[in-house]
Specification:
This protein is an alpha+beta fold. The protein is built from eleven helices and twelve strands. It has a five-stranded antiparallel beta sheet, sandwiched between helices.
């Protein structure tokens, strides 16, 4: 349906242009021809008056008059008597010419009517505008005729035709470009709409899970489990865990929405090493027994202009994910300045991922191990938040991972000019 609409739009545009071009072309050319005829006729009438004023007929210098005036005015001038014979010709072709009594313009002029016509010259093989005026003097009765080649006007006509074709081609390209843009736009809108529906579906599912759990345990408590102190405490602990999980999910959704909408807290020049130390302190309680959290500061790293809160959120999500994935070994944090960029690396010796999984981990609600992630309280939004924060500072994030060996995230954030 959309393709038919686009084709119809293109055809309608092309037909409209061609119709306009044809109308302008035909009417414009007719107007130019009319103006040319009237202008050339006025010149012929002026020559007739000059012919009389110079007593050309009495002197008999018809050829001299025709040649002199023809050179001055850049046109053919022919002097014809009432018998149709040529007495003078500026183009020096008088001897080649037949009797002119069969010429339309000559006959009209001999009958006393000044007139102009456009027709093809059999002598010179091109279109001319012929203007003829009657002259009478000293017993002479004849016609002065001017002839101007219409080649210039025809060239103008050809040029207009070429311009019309070029304009049509440009319009066609424009319509095709617009149609391609429209198709990409529709495709992008469909993709956005699909993402929106998927997001709403995922949010609904993620919210429903803890709520269902909370509702079930509340009903169990109301049905009598509240009278058993041990059972009641255990159920209340589960309700508390699910409530905290629900709160984290809502906080992450709001945070992601805020970042996507361009929300940004006040920026300042942050000591990156200091921010990482704060994150290290915050995450220390989550470090497992056989895991070490190691930070390797680099004093040479200059302050980075950013929102301190956003930088902490980025690091907390990456470190938290690394700690969750690691049962033995270490999670290592490093920061460096490389080629005008702040480079943060968070590597672990955890379970790692397959290549197809690394391609999707920044999608919302995507989990490598859904059961493990939910058991550890993950919302599935952490890495999506990390990616959006990196993009907030025109940065990038890359991941490399091998199953059973570990994962490394590399965040590259360019320094601004004022922050270098």
């Amino acid at each position: 349906m959309k393709r038919k609409f686009l084709i119809g739009y293109a055809v309608a545009a092309a037909v409209s242009l061609l119709a306009f071009a044809y109308a302008f072309w035909s009417n414009g050319f007719a107007y130019l021809e009319e103006r040319s005829e009237s202008g050339y006729l006025a010149q012929a009438e002026l020559l007739g008056e000059l012919f009389l004023a110079e007593n050309t007929a009495a002197k008999g210098n018809f050829s001299e008059f025709a040649q002199l005036q023809g050179e001055k005015r850049h046109m053919r001038i022919t002097i014809i008597d009432e018998e149709g014979d040529v007495l003078g010709e500026s183009a020096e072709a008088g001897q080649l010419m037949d009797n002119h009594l069969d010429r339309e313009e000559v006959l009209k002029a001999l009958s006393g009517e000044s007139n102009s016509v456009i027709r093809r010259s059999a002598t010179f093989g091109m279109d001319y505008c012929y203007s003829a005026v009657p002259v009478k003097a000293d017993g002479f009765r004849g016609v002065i005729r001017t002839a101007v080649p219409m080649e210039e006007l025809r060239n103008m006509n050809d040029e207009f035709f070429r311009s019309t074709v070029l304009t049509a081609a440009i319009l066609l390209l424009l319509v095709l470009s617009l149609s391609m843009y429209f198709r990409r736009y529709v495709s992008a809108m469909k993709k956005v709409e699909a993402m929106r529906r998927e997001f709403v579906s995922n949010v609904t599912h993620e919210l429903k899970t803890p709520l269902t759990s909370i509702r079930g345990f509340v009903e169990t408590l109301k049905e009598g489990a509240l009278n058993d102190p041990d059972c009641a405490r255990r159920f209340l602990d589960i309700i508390e865990i699910e409530t905290e999980r629900l709160g984290r999910l809502i906080d992450d959704i709001l945070l992601l929405s805020e970042i996507e909408n361009g929300g940004e807290t006040a920026q300042e020049f942050c000591d990156v090493n200091e921010v990482i130390r704060e994150v290290e302190t915050l995450m220390e309680p989550r470090v497992k027994e056989h895991v070490r959290l190691i930070f390797k500061p680099d004093p040479a790293v200059p302050p980075y202009r950013c929102s301190r809160d956003r930088m902490k959120q980025l690091l907390i999500n990456l470190v938290d994910n690394a700690l969750k994935a690691t049962e033995f070994g270490a999670v290592i944090i490093t920061c460096q300045r490389i080629s005008g960029c702040l480079v943060l690396r968070i590597s672990d010796t955890g379970i790692g991922m397959e290549e197809e999984q690394t391609e999707r981990i920044f999608e919302r609600f995507y989990r490598v191990d859904k059961g493990r992630s939910r058991a550890q309280g993950g919302t599935g939004l952490g890495l999506s938040i990390v990616k959006h924060i990196a993009e907030l500072y025109n940065g990038t994030i890359q991941v490399s991972s091998r199953p059973g060996e570990g994962t490394e995230f590399t965040v590259t954030l360019p320094y601004t000019r004022e922050g270098q």
